[in-house]
Design brief:
It is built from eight helices and 14 strands. By secondary structure, it is of the alpha+beta class. It starts with a strand and ends in a 5-residue tail after the last helix.
């Protein structure tokens, strides 16, 4: 097989003209920076979690690019083109839609930062005027955001720019959002059996040879999505059960603020430090535990 791309989490190989193989690594990244530490079993948990959700989506009638799981950490998928947005038209087929769709169901993460700064007003989230939003509040309706996919650092897009970048019609954009929300309904129904709250997550899409929409890459894992423990939440606590716990570690170190300042000023970005051994062990255990809580399967 030919190696065609090394990503932050997985390596992509070309099997033949119509197939790719994903090899999920134990690498971990935050804030678009790869941490110089490996997390044992992380790749396997992500691969198997993704395969689980692809099969759930398929059972719900949602088209996917998934073909086959090759244990422990490989997956065969349908190949699509990755094109520069300037070369995409409304008639192009078999290509990756250069967008990420983010679905938010609770106030958390960067959304909370933007609410506090005043960048996102409560009214935009469907909240009645005068009502104060707090961290952890359930939103009255899902909040959809779209970001770039192929740029060095993801950035939020207004609908008009998203349509232009991906060469989507309004109907295709609406279908993309509808699909993401439909999948989230399946996720919430599945994980509430194991006392998990699906807080938010991201999804990626492509068009097949007939320009039919299909979900691609990975979703519903401890990397792409945010999860809270239901019992802790019912007591007013927010127990982070995802890669968010690693993001918080670097926020507490002060690294995040330094990185954002460097990006804002156009300066060289500071190197990200490796994780200490105790943290590596903790994070590895988290990924294994989350695989079991997300899927209901035993890891070994």
């Amino acid at each position: 097989m030919k190696l065609i791309r090394q990503g932050k989490v997985k390596d992509v190989y070309e099997v033949d003209a119509r197939s790719l193989e994903f090899v999920f690594s134990d690498k971990i990244s935050v804030f678009d920076k790869i941490i110089p530490s490996l997390i044992p079993q992380k790749g396997e948990t992500l691969c198997r979690s993704s395969a689980f959700w692809f099969q759930v989506a398929r059972s719900a009638g949602i088209k996917t690019h998934f073909r086959e799981l090759i244990p422990p950490n490989r997956m065969r998928v349908q190949k699509v083109q990755i094109l520069d947005p300037s070369k995409i038209t409304k008639k192009t087929t078999n290509y990756l839609v250069p967008l990420e769709v983010i679905t938010r169901h609770y106030v958390a993460g960067s959304l909370w930062d933007r609410i506090r700064s005043g960048e996102v007003k409560p009214a935009k989230l469907g909240v009645k005027s005068g009502k104060e939003l707090k961290y952890g509040d359930k939103l009255p309706e899902p909040y959809i955001e779209v970001t770039t996919k192929l740029e060095k650092v993801d950035r939020l897009l207004a609908k008009k720019e998203a349509l232009k970048i991906a060469s989507l019609t309004n109907a295709e954009y609406d279908a993309l959002v509808k699909s993401a929300l439909s999948i989230d309904e399946q996720i919430a129904e599945e994980v509430e059996k194991r006392d998990l709250i699906h807080v938010d997550g991201k999804k990626e899409y492509a068009f097949d040879e007939e320009r039919e929409l299909m979900i691609v890459d990975t979703f519903g894992t401890a990397d792409e999505d945010r999860w809270w423990d239901w019992e802790a939440y019912s007591k007013g606590q927010f127990l982070e059960l995802s890669k968010e716990s690693v993001r918080q570690y670097y926020r507490q170190l002060g690294y995040y603020d330094k990185l954002m300042e460097a990006r804002k000023m156009g300066k060289a970005e500071p190197k990200i430090a490796a994780l200490p051994e105790a943290k590596i062990k903790e994070v590895s255990g988290l990924y294994i535990d989350m695989f079991e809580r997300i899927t209901g399967e035993t890891f070994r």
